[in-house]
Fold:
Amino acid sequence: MRKFLRLPVSKVTRMTLLSLIALTFGTTATAADYACDGFVGSFSNRPDNLRPENEATVKIVKDGNGFAIIVQGDSPDDWERMPLKVGVPEYIQKEMLAEGKKMTPLTCALSADGVLLWQFPAGSPDNPSESKSRNRSQYPQKTPYIMIVNGGMAAGEGGLYRNRTED
Structure:
């Protein structure tokens, strides 16, 4: 069985996901509009000071093939790579525009099948981790990095925290 980030699972409905997405994108942006190099590194769903030593992490890498997310597999030395696309998936853009939602820009948007990774600009009022009433299990501390898993048993969303030591 593949080990993945332990996201605090809340009831994420299509409406919840669309509401969060609605807050996220200002205009229809192209891949060239994003600066995603700042997303490269290892992340956990908890800050280092709250993360158990052996907790799974994800790695975001960039190479000649573009960006990819690398997740821990069945064993600690087993890592699986999944290519990421830069930008907001077209189906999300179409759904948001059809609903007439107001959207705000991101620093970076990366996506793969069932996974969205977003980096908010510093101090963004639309960043759920910046809210004083934020869910502390999903966002224990403020972070510009958010991951949404919209499929499978790990469906949910939460903050990503850069690991101080690379795993």
